[in-house]
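Sample entry (168 residues):
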Amino acid sequence: VKFELRAYINSARDLQCDGDRVPNAFCEMSCAGERDRTAMVPQTSAPHWSEILTLPISLQCSLNTIRVYPEPIQLTIYDVVGKTILERMADTVQQVKEITTGKIGEVTENAASALGGDSDDEDGAASTKGGKAGGSKAGSVKSVQKVYDDQRQESLLDDLDLAKIGEE
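Predicted structure, serialized as tokens:
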């Protein structure tokens, strides 16, 4: 027999965490193999959801006695540990901005200087203080860093696409 189970999830009080952390809580309801959950409420020990959770469930029914056998309903409050998907997306966007604005390039220039390079000329090749050996090392660092930057940027953009899919 098919039923629809509805539960109004209002709030929770005095939620505790390990240490000095404040919980990022959500509530999950499960019954007869079906699950639904509320939105996560960040940084509060007294989350207020005011949500209705709805589960389509099937219950066992005896044809002889026309009796429905109920399934247990379980409500569980969870704490999200670590960064939320929105926080991870914000971090990824910040990393993409840093790569595209050249902050990673500053690290490359510092590495080139440490290997004996002085500064960049317009072609992107490092001029040297002490001869060709330092310049070739600095040039190697620059080319390796450029490849790394390109790969990192592609990876970050892939992460953004995955985060968008995860939110939907």
